[in-house]
């Protein structure tokens, strides 16, 4: 038991500095919607995704690479970007063989924070690629940090629920002494049978649905294994692994 | 509805800067054990408590005031302090009419962080003084931040459960749009009937009980209204209000 790797859950980007990311698999989690969109784009044949931390950089890099400048700020399309952060936009007919240059309020920012903190093994996860994430974690046998993107450094429940879903599946393989992980798994187990119904309690649900009408996005982002690929970060790109 | 004051829950001192503390009641929560001990000391007749953020300052101020230099670092008595951070130490026969100068790893540090951030209305809360805290919050009709002390900036569940207990009692009086508050109340409602049993899941339980044997402390800290006073911060002192 004591020789098992550790698993921790970081509930906000503002807490990520509490965890050692060296020689650790960091799972960046932004369920609504960046990491769901990344899974959808790669599942539907995108060559790769370049996650960037600012709108100007997204525009600059898309111009240089011929990629699609996409993303959002505060939940809506940012000026200068041609596409948004909805997984529904990245159907195969549109995204196949293309490069997606993506910037978002929380998820892509957290990925860059993890890089700056020395992370050398980053994947992205959401319900659409839950099984691929879990299979990777159990195969690697390395320490794990489940890194929730939250909303502007605030805690959110949808990322926590996904962390809980991972923990429920992989916990026999890890040594877990972490109240965040316990709470995440607890919330997931209590509500796993109706995540769409439960999601109506969440602040981000209302931000997305009441303001922008993204009800299909919510349903997709909470559905397990509908875009079951493993996005692995390598030299500036998220590439579909395996 | 829209004219009600707001209520937010900050799950860690590392998140407190996300919240506006001006003209806001800040409830500092460190269930195991600082804010339980503060309630116990004031309930048992301490003149007041001086919360300080370092061991040398505790020693210096206790010398100057004739107070008792007390506290802990990493859960145990720190060198140079004469008493610890157990509510059991502060029975009436010992603490009545005395001044307690208290420094702790998380709770007193968070109180000083809130002060530095401009908080001008700070109280402390734990299960032993739950009703006094709730009565004060509903009477004040001001915005509220429930500030969990956590453990070295990490999330913990015992402080979260207390935040949930407060929310369960006062929520009709506040406008609450905050996933932290929703989760806190959810965890509390699910486990309110057996908090001592549930507490065995918590990392801090094992830190206190397995290492130091503080099982009586745990029971006291989770018992509602057994030291039901309101500690209000005023000019460097926590004073029993009303």
UniProtKB/TrEMBL annotation, chains A, B:
Key word Magnesium present: yes
Molecular-function GO terms, alphabetical: 2-phosphosulfolactate phosphatase activity; magnesium ion binding; sulfopyruvate decarboxylase activity
Enzyme class, broadest EC rank: hydrolase
Origin superkingdom: Bacteria
Swiss-Prot/TrEMBL cofactor(s): Mg(2+)
Keywords: Hydrolase, Magnesium
Enzyme Commission number, as recorded: 3.1.3.71
Record flagged with keyword Magnesium: yes
Pfam family, any one: 2-ph_phosp
Catalytic activity entry: (2R)-O-phospho-3-sulfolactate + H2O = (2R)-3-sulfolactate + phosphate
Similarity-based family: Belongs to the ComB family.
Stated name of the protein: Probable 2-phosphosulfolactate phosphatase
Protein species of origin: Niabella drilacis (strain DSM 25811 / CCM 8410 / CCUG 62505 / LMG 26954 / E90)
